Amino acid sequence: MDPSLKVPAPLQAQELLSNPCSALTDAQVTGLGLKPPGRITKGLLDLCAWSGEIRENGVSVGAVPQNKGGISDIYAKKAKSAYFEPVTVNGYPGVFADIQDGRLSGSCSLWVGITDQLAFTVITSINIGQNKAHACRSAQKTAEAVVTHLKGAA
């Protein structure tokens, strides 16, 4: 494993795995300009989706248990990514990456390692308004709030 991808202090993620809507408190959701409660969508990933003040805008969060190597598994797929921008989220390794680049359309995916075996993702979908051009900034703010919550500080 690349030492820069090592998770500094693994976070408890059991609740996130069993209920992705536990990723954020209602106060955090509101502070991000979203509306509680979130709704769980089941699929390849179980995600919790929150809508924004404008219904067409939203954010989804969920753990990625399929990747047993955590954030390293996302880095291993770099060649298949349409964009790939490493970032640190509250001291945890992360990367903006997706197989399609929808950033100009208000879509951004951020992956964050919270243990060496587990990452979570934040996917923004901002179709209307001033934040459409800043979808990745919204994803990072959301990811920072998730890490803060998982650390027990929220």
How would you summarize this macromolecular structure in one to three sentences?
This protein has one domain (3-150): 3-Layer(aba) Sandwich (Protein Transport Mog1p, Chain A). The protein contains four helices and seven strands, in the order ααβββαββββα. The protein has helices spanning 14-18, 26-31, 71-76, 135-150; strands at residues 34-41, 47-52, 57-63, 83-89, 92-98, 107-115, 118-126.
Account of the 3D structure:
There is one protein chain. The protein is an alpha+beta fold and about 150 residues long. It has one domain: 3-Layer(aba) Sandwich (Protein Transport Mog1p, Chain A), CATH 3.40.1000. Helices cover about 20% and strands about 35% of the residues. It has four helices and seven strands; from the N terminus they run H-H-E-E-E-H-E-E-E-E-H. It has helices spanning about 15-20, 25-30, 70-75, 135-150, and strands at about 35-40, 45-50, 55-65, 85-90, 90-100, 105-115, 120-125. Strand 5 and strand 6 form a beta hairpin. The radius of gyration is 14 Å and the shape is globular. About 40% of the residues are buried. The mean pLDDT is about 95. InterPro entries: DUF3558 (IPR024520). Pfam families: DUF3558 (PF12079).
